[in-house]
Design goal:
The protein is mainly α. The protein has two helices and no strands.
Amino acid sequence: MHGTDNELIYEAIVAVVAAGLIYFAYCLGGFLGVGVLGLLVAYVAFQADLNRTGSYITMARPAQEDHRDKAARRLEAGALATQIGVGKLLGLGLAVIGFGLFFFF
């Protein structure tokens, strides 16, 4: 899956903002701040996963649905699951790194 130029620009902006938040959390509270930020990110990602609406799984489907609609729903559910998975991984990674280095140092 290749993104358009606009999508790549948005991803770069989000990466810079995330790096800025991590740096701010480190300056504010050291590794403990990074761990707490990781817990917050993981919490939001897990809540988004639990409260997912409008996806292929939870949306009421009409009795007769053509192949294009089914494929679109599956694609939407897959894209949402991928984004939520990245949020979970980022949050848990920050929590492990932050709290691990907090207790190590």
